[in-house]
Design a protein that fits this description.
- The protein is of the alpha+beta class.
- The protein has a single domain, classed as Hotdog Thioesterase (Thiol Ester Dehydrase, Chain A).
- Helices cover 23% and strands 33% of the residues.
- The protein has four helices and five strands, in the order βααααββββ.
- A five-stranded antiparallel beta sheet has the order 1-3-4-5-2, covered by helices on one side.
- Strand 3 and strand 4 form a beta hairpin.
- The radius of gyration is 17 Å and the shape is elongated.
Length: 141
């Protein structure tokens, strides 16, 4: 399976992926990443923070952007070059997050695309915004 090659992409193309964040997502991410910050895994500690309850790891949510890029647009075979992320709002257990990408630039000579990237919760609040640079799969010869 291969994703879309640069000749099949146009500026303005978009795609998305939606996931509801569970407590187990947070624990699994903490275990895999080693990020055991109590703001994510300790409910009593989280009550003392500005958020008042546990929050999801920012990079767990940012990883949903990778899901869109690697499975949908441009899809399998894509290679990440760059990603910036601004974390704008917390994500809580039970929030439903939609990660979205939009193609903003195409560089056919370098087989490179630029994307606007963002994630929003079920209320439409943007929780992450950023930009990515990707090499889509090369056309088969």
């Amino acid at each position: 399976m291969s994703g879309l090659t640069i000749d099949k992409l146009t500026i303005g193309d978009t795609d998305r992926f939606t996931k509801t964040i569970s407590e187990s997502d947070i624990y699994v991410f903490a275990g895999v990443s080693g990020d055991l910050n109590p703001a994510h895994i300790d409910a009593e500690y989280a009550k003392t923070t500005v958020f008042k309850k546990r929050i999801a790891h920012g990079f767990l949510i940012g990883g949903l952007i990778s899901t869109v890029i690697g499975t949908r647009l441009p899809g399998p075979g894509s290679i990440y070059r760059e990603q910036t992320m601004n974390f704008l709002a917390p994500v809580y257990i039970g929030d439903t997050i939609t990660a979205q990408v939009e193609i903003t630039e195409l560089d056919t000579a370098k087989n490179k695309i630029s994307l606007r990237t963002w994630c929003a919760n079920q209320d439409g609040t943007t929780v992450i915004e950023g930009r990515a640079v990707i090499h889509p799969p090369k056309p088969k010869k």
